[in-house]
Amino acid sequence: MKKSLRRALWAGAIVAMASAAVPMVQASAAAACAPAWSSTAVYTKDMTASQNGHNYTAKWWTQNESPATHSGQWDVWADGGACSGGGTDPTTPPTTPPVTPSDTPPTPPTTPPTQPPGSSGKNVVGYFAEWGVYGRNYHVKNIVTSGSASKLTHILYAFGNTTGGQCSIGDSYADYDRAYTAAESVDGVADTWDNGALRGSFNQLRKLKKAYPNIKVIWSFGGWTWSGGFTQAAANPTGFANSCYNLIKDSRWADVFDGIDIDWEYPNACGLSCDTSGPDAYNKVISALRTKFGNNFLITSAISADGSNGGKLDAADYASGIAKLNLVFPMTYDYYGAFSPQGPTAPHSPLTSYSGIPTQGFWSDAAIQKLKSKGVPSSKMLLGIGFYGRGWTGVTQTAPGGTATGAAPGTYEAGIEDYKVLKNSCPATGTVGGTAYAKCGSNWWGYDTPATIGGKMTYAKQQGLGGAFFWEFSGDTSNGELITAIKNGLG
């Protein structure tokens, strides 16, 4: 999905244990980068912490920086997240931890089962952002307490990195090392410091699967920020597939994951960086993964939702790659936003076109119909829903199409805000193109509500789609209003 580590909104200071801080700073993306975000963060460093008698050192980055490492003392460095990267990493990113390769599965080229797990047309798939455990204080247990766990079929854990054309750990501390207390834990049992004990979100996901055995957990690699390594992966697809297999099948967490998701932004096109691997690169990478993992492992992919003529969906042979997938997630959101600071204002996730829409082909149905025309089965496609809004400030016109002066203020990042905030701070005042918008003072927001999600789910059923997916859990209310609308809408 597109937001950075793609779509994420990250809070500046992550732990309440600061010892020194410098003034707040503003980082913004390079003008050539689109979409682009900016955020304000506090730079804090040289912090010492102790947990259960064990001292740790962590280097923290926002979603657009390198993953965390730890050992020794805290050294916290939080940078404003711009799609240009927001600065130079002060250290070398950590390498993938030692892995224990499992036995190699059967490797003949095969196609996945025609019927993905979960009832046909009723898949409900949600992204869990690994960095949400920091400033957002959103943990796997919240999936349970919000009532979301009983409505899900799949969780996409975002993200793993693609360093050097290899699958690698995104944030080792959040993923498998953070110790959860009994109160924080899914099953009410605290993590241990026994040798070899799994902690972090991976262990919480293991506990969640035990309580909700029908949920499948898929590890997503790439995203807006970490797609750069796919270019190298495309040059050696077999090596990439082997690295992913060894990481996902690591004996410490092999039971946690039921699949791998490839979120390549974008093959043979430009995202944060540009890829020129050729139109067949996507298919080669997906084919190598299917060959390595075999038929019984889920392979999914988040892809462009650019329905324009000659756009990103036309830049690569998506259909051949999708033929090997179980499910595919066209990212039908982030079409418009304050990465175009002067507007025109437009809801970021229109389902259909409307009079005055800024760009032809930039709406959900255009992407779905384009993929169908390429031979992609409707039953494999899920409709994407954003659990957040995108907005502008300096707007005088209530209807879409107005001019603006910049990005509207947001809790974590300018131009973007969670649904759970917007429903109260700027309630929807109108609908257009099957989604909602609101103007409050000089701020203008576009976002989905339970009502517009209901309409989108009716569309998904009419089109014979495989269900819906969303970015991401923490944007919903504490009682799961939006996921409930998805579940109920799909019937």
Describe what you observe in this structure:
The structure is a single chain. With 491 residues, the protein is α/β, with parallel strands linked by helices. It has a domain at 97-337 and 347-374 and 450-490: TIM Barrel. 22% of the residues lie in helices and 18% in strands. It has 13 helices and 21 strands. The strands form five sheets. An eight-stranded parallel sheet has the order 13-12-11-10-9-8-21-14. Strands 15, 16, 17, 18, 19 and 20 form a six-stranded antiparallel sheet that branches. α2 links the parallel β8 and β9 (154-160). α6 (237-248) crosses α7 (281-293) and α12 (450-462) runs parallel beside α13. It starts with a helix and ends with a helix. Residues 1-118 have low confidence and may be disordered.
Give a quick summary of the entry.
It contains 13 helices and 21 strands. It has 491 residues and is an alpha/beta fold. The strands form 5 sheets. Strands 13-12-11-10-9-8-21-14 form an 8-stranded parallel beta sheet. Strands 15, 16, 17, 18, 19 and 20 form a 6-stranded antiparallel beta sheet that branches.
Number of helices: 13
Distance between termini? 25 Å
Q: Please state the structural category.
A: alpha/beta
Residues in β-strands, percent: 15-25%
Report on the biggest sheet. Answer: 8 strands, parallel
Q: Total strand count, please? A: 21
**Residues in helices, as a percent range:** 10-25%
Low-confidence stretches: 1-118
Named CATH topology of the domain at 97-337 and 347-374 and 450-490: TIM Barrel
In the CATH hierarchy, the architecture of the domain at 97-337 and 347-374 and 450-490 is Alpha-Beta Barrel
